What we know:
This protein is mainly beta. The protein has one helix spanning 220-252, and strands at 23-30, 35-37, 47-56, 62-67, 72-76, 83-85, 95-97, 106-114, 117-128, 132-137, 143-150, 155-159, 163-170, 176-183, 191-197, 203-208. It is built from 1 helix and 16 strands. The strands form 4 sheets. A 6-stranded mixed β-sheet has the order 1-9-8-3-4-5, with no helix packed on it.
Amino acid sequence: MPCTWRTSQLCLLPILTVFLLPGNTSLSVLVDTKVVLACPPASLTNVLIIRWDINLRGKPSCSRAYRRDNNETSERNCTDERISWESRPDLNPALQIGPVAMTHEGYYRCEVAAQEGNFGLGYHLQVSVPPEVTLFRGSNGSIVCRAAAANPAAQISWTPQGDCDTVEQQLGNGAVTIQSTCQWEDSQVSNVSCSVSHVTGNKSLSLDLNQGIITLEFPASALLIILYVKFSLFLVILVIVGCTYFQIINDCR
Length: 253
């Protein structure tokens, strides 16, 4: 079947026989920002067809195309409104994504069919999500450092080193939570620091192991006074209860 706009609006014209080697690049973008993906450089006056193929994780392939001879755009299986042409494709065929979300991770490729040949440029897009870092007390005297919902996974280290157990939890959206639980046998350790390393930046939190522990100490004489006061109050209560009881008995007679 001949390749026509009606039968396959996204195919390249068969008259183009000069091809350049396709290019691919990896791109890391911070979540909630905007990114613009450019097509390979080509003179727009010589362009015949421009096509974007978008392959996102867990979703059907989406295609956006522009045909210059009739100034027509088309799309297939494209439902995410955050992915669009940056402007008019006849002026600038770049693709715009914003705000970027985890669901936008995938492979984006621009194919340009021009009179001098076919040009291709692909992007492996990874969305970086900074971790939410917390440091808190766990059970049995342990200290817990958590780097939650990060992409890619964060790394946790301790100062000083302790007896640590680190677990990794894969979240449904591709993000990862790392949790490290540590204990220190050395009683001289009074302060610990948790350092979290990530491509979006590093963070360190510290915790005073003695914080929140209050010890009350009394001299021996003070303890004796406290015991004497408590015993005196007990005798007074006992006398009042006894008198009340005997008065009730006498009234009944």
